[in-house]
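Protocol step 4 of 6: structure prediction from sequence.
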Amino acid sequence: MTNFILCYGKLNNPKFKKMMKAELIEKEEIFNYKFLDAPKDEVTVEASKLNGAVRLGNEFKSKAYITFQTDQGPKKIETTVWSVTEKYLQIKNGVLIPLKSLIDIQY
């Protein structure tokens, strides 16, 4: 069974919202997808969220939900964030997710 998480984004008209379904996948499946730049009107990631996710992972060994854009639509994983650089978010096993592809981080 496929799990779907809802993400909300703005249409050109701010009075309306559209729903995008982000499929929850296992972090080990991330290699099956090509990262794309996230639509600008969908992005809700700020530096404070990134730093909070890193602190959560390093100090408390807790996980965050990371939603990112791929060639097969938005995907979401639950994982520990190890570090953030100028261009990438690093998770377990040295996997790098481009910051340009991030849609949301929740914890």
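Step 5 (inspection) to follow. Helices lie at 47-60.
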